[in-house]
Write a structure and sequence with these properties.
The chain has 126 residues and is mainly α. It contains 5 helices and 2 strands; from the N terminus they run αββαααα. It has a two-stranded parallel sheet.
Length: 126
Amino acid sequence: AALAKEKALREAAEKGATAKKATHLDNTLSKIPKPKGSAGNGFKLIEAMQLEDNEQLYHAIIREVHELSIQAGLDYRDDFKDQPVEALGLLYKLARDIFPVLERFPNDWATAEMTKQYLYNKRKHS
């Protein structure tokens, strides 16, 4: 099971390398600090990430973060704060590798917000 999980994560990273080349993102832009509150309760994530003009990229990132959450072995039945730190770290690294624009968000706050929303919604609708 662990071998299959590792293979899936490796394949995701390889797939991401292709996406990385295709998006030509400029990750040299300034860092974007996390706003107060949480996504949906204090700020709109797409606006906080300054991607209102690139909804296609925003939705591609969300889809990939959802997929990586599954591949990293996060359990939707557990709150975000109870997820294994190693799994979250792996998810954040792979997400940054696939979408270098995510390097603009200190401490991976944008990826964390997407992950929290995904786990909450999955738990709510299961």
